[in-house]
């Protein structure tokens, strides 16, 4: 019994003397590991700073050449940033820019722009070239042809451009052939059951109705107001004569410029 007690006391004394040593060694090892990690991180940060400084110096030196070559500086900077993010190792060489090729392209582009400007200026100097003919007509009076049971409108020129259309009283003569957009509106002011008008074309002795507009009218005279509008695209030969014809004699129409009008322009 005495021997066992003495052995137990001895083992406790040995553990109590060795335990603090092991704890201190573990703490020292942990501290050394943390210090090593900090030193490693510091070295990595220092290397990254050096690489960024080199890139900054290189980018500053190349900025003039990049601008002279006409390369977007944002794209150039973006390339460097992408390289930094993709690798932290060796610094890659920046992309090279062939200034001679870019300058040749710029020279060719400038020559083309100059040629286009000169051509546009020459076209503008030529009378009537590039200007589309149009004619907007406003009513002056209405003329009734009783024997033909029709009413024609006498027009005055509101707006016009070009020499392709000529106004002569009640008719318009086309001097430049082509496709034309034709529009017309008439304000009717009578209680006849139906009112309307035709756009007619005469060329080479032949007469053709191009467009027709028909409107029902109110029965009561005080409310007998109605507008009829029609429009469309037609091909008109050179020498064509157009007129707006109302197939009713003594037709009562409004002659206000905003209510009754006619026009056409070349497409």
Automatic annotation (TrEMBL):
Region span, Disordered: 95-128
Protein family (similarity comment): Belongs to the tumor necrosis factor family.
Primary localization class, coarse: secreted
One cellular component term from this protein's GO annotations in UniProt: extracellular space
One GO molecular-function entry: cytokine activity
One of the Pfam families matching this protein, by short name: TNF
Listed transmembrane segments: 20-40
Start and end residues of each THD domain: 133-267
InterPro entries membership: TNF_dom (IPR006052), TNF_Ligand_Superfamily (IPR051748), Tumour_necrosis_fac-like_dom (IPR008983)
Subcellular location: Secreted
Keywords assigned by UniProt, alphabetized: Cytokine, Disulfide bond, Glycoprotein, Membrane, Secreted, Transmembrane, Transmembrane helix
GO biological process: immune response; positive regulation of B cell proliferation
Protein name: THD domain-containing protein
Keyword Secreted (UniProt): yes
């Amino acid at each position: 019994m005495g021997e066992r007690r003495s052995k137990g006391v001895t083992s406790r004394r040995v553990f109590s003397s060795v335990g603090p040593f092991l704890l201190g060694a573990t703490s020292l090892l942990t501290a050394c590991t943390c210090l090593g990690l900090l030193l490693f991180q510091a070295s990595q940060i220092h290397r990254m700073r050096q690489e960024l400084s080199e890139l900054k110096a290189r980018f500053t030196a190349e900025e003039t050449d990049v601008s002279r070559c006409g390369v977007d500086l944002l794209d150039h900077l973006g390339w460097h940033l992408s390289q930094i993010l993709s690798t932290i190792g060796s610094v890659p060489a920046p992309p090279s820019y062939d200034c001679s090729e870019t300058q040749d392209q710029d020279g060719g582009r400038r020559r083309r722009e100059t040629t286009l400007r000169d051509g546009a200026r020459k076209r503008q100097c030529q009378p009537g070239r590039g200007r589309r003919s149009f004619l907007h007509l406003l009513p002056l009076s209405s003329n009734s042809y009783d024997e033909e049971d029709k009413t024609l409108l006498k027009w005055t020129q509101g707006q016009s451009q070009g020499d392709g259309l000529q106004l002569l009283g009640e008719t318009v003569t086309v001097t430049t052939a082509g496709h034309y957009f034709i529009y017309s509106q008439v304000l009717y002011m009578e209680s006849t059951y139906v009112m309307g008008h035709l756009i007619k074309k005469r060329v080479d002795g032949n007469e053709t109705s191009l467009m027709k507009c028909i409107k029902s009218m109110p029965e009561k005279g005080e409310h007998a107001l109605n507008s009829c509008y029609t429009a469309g695209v037609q091909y008109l030969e050179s020498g064509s004569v157009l007129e707006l014809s109302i197939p009713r004699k003594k037709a009562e129409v409004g002659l206000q410029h905003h209510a009754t009008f006619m026009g056409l322009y070349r497409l």
